[in-house]
What does this fold into?
Amino acid sequence: MTYSIVARCQETGQLGVAVQSHWFASGIVCWARAGVGAVATQAMALIDHGPLGLELMASGYSASEALEIRMNKDESPEIRQVAMVDSKGTVAAHTGSSTIPEANHIVEDGFSCQANMMWNPTVCQAMAESFNSSEGQLAERLLASLHAGQAEGGDIRGMQSGRILVVHSEPLDKAWEEIIVDLRVDDHTEPLVELSRLLAIHNAYSNLNEDESGVHFDSDLGHDYPEIAFWRGVALANQGKVRESRELIKIAFDQYEGWRELLLRCSKRGLAGITEETVRILLDDEPPEID
It folds into this structure.
């Protein structure tokens, strides 16, 4: 009752899964673990295949082996649709014989697209072509694939929810830092539009230090999100970029007086890289007297 994609980025090794469906909180079909793999479990979904499939891959089984083991344990594989990708890029997918048409999957190098209850049998092909031709971070390519699936007809019932989940290529010492992107829309008339909006905001927050990240900062978002404008302004001030920093900080100051007070309080405590010199640059005068 949905369409999804699981993938491993050939350049970064990141693992991801994305979904859209006309079902509340369809993100439950998405499972991924850093350095292990990603799973989509859908149709008349048995959620067990997600976490238990990851456990099998973490134990050393390939995606193909893990999927075979899980299907052998499933009493009703004919109504399931499951796809897995492991940390080496091995991909496997299963579409049960009794899943609701149109239902199929396409497995290509490092990724799999799968769909059921679609308007058209060409949804998966459109998704695969989009993923192959798209550029950028894995999350952006997954989202592009979902958009392509919707443009090809998508779920026969329409749209309601979606999710993008991307994890690191290797386990980290701090497991809670392994998730790179986890955005979900549980109930929305245009879930892909909303996911696109959220991903743009996520990228803006993640890339506030443009010069360090090498990622272009979308200044337009600063007008909608004073938090972004404020911290980007501080970063630019500390880089000596006076004009640009003042333009951004003014966005925050004009929206709410608390941002100016926050600047002064952080300067007083020497917090968040805000010094008296930062204040001088941003306020265009001598530093105020700080008690």
Remarks:
- DSSP finds eleven helices and ten strands in the chain.
- The longest helix spans residues 191-206.
- The two ends are 62 Å apart (CA to CA).
